[in-house]
Amino acid sequence: MSTSSTSAEPVARSVEPASGSTSGALSTECVGSACHVLATVLSHYPDRNEALVNAGGTALHKDSGGVEHWGELRGFGGRLIVLRLSQEHGVVGTLDGSPMPWTELPLGGVVRIVPNHSCMAACQHQTHHVVGEGGVVEDVWRPAAGW
Fold first, then answer.
1. Which terminus of the chain has fewer CB atoms gathered within 10 Å of its CB, N or C?
2. Could you state, in order of their start, the residue ranges of all structural domains in the chain?
3. How far separated are the first and last CA of the chain, in Å rounded?
4. Nearest CA to 109 among 56, 62, 64, 52?
């Protein structure tokens, strides 16, 4: 784990959990027609050129949609991807092996991950925040669940 104590602004703004949802729970955010999963940067591993986020297989789903990685971080021009998943965590790295932009991934910062298989990722969450122009939450959807 990194002992860095950077206080830079998060990459993406955090969305407060909707009333009735679990505090601190991950949520999906739909911008236009794209679905994003918001995740928090938990740790830096400069020696491996990787970062750890709190979005794993239960948030992004382990169906890669036929792509060799599990999702792309929005705002980095396709350069940052989710390399590996465990149940609760994702490991982020660069697609081309270039150095990680550490100042843009502060510990505690929130990132937007575009999952490769958005349908499978979206069904993992209890709330969906619909975000309009200017990043304003316009609606909160609670999808039907169960069989």
1. C
2. 40-140
3. 40
4. 52
Q: How buried is 111 (Cβ within 10 angstroms: 0-12 exposed, 13-18 middle, 19+ buried)?
A: buried
- Only one residue has tokens 């609670």, namely 142
CA distances from 26 to 65, 83, 97 (A): 21, 19, 28
What is the reported pTM?
0.70
CATH number of 40-140: 2.40.37.20
DSSP one-letter code for 18: P
pLDDT tens for 80-132 read 999 999 999 999 999 899 999 999 999 999 998 988 877 667 777 788 777 77
Indicate the pairing of strand 90-94 with strand 80-85: antiparallel
Tell me the three state secondary structure of residue 139: strand
| Token couple for 44 | 């830096």
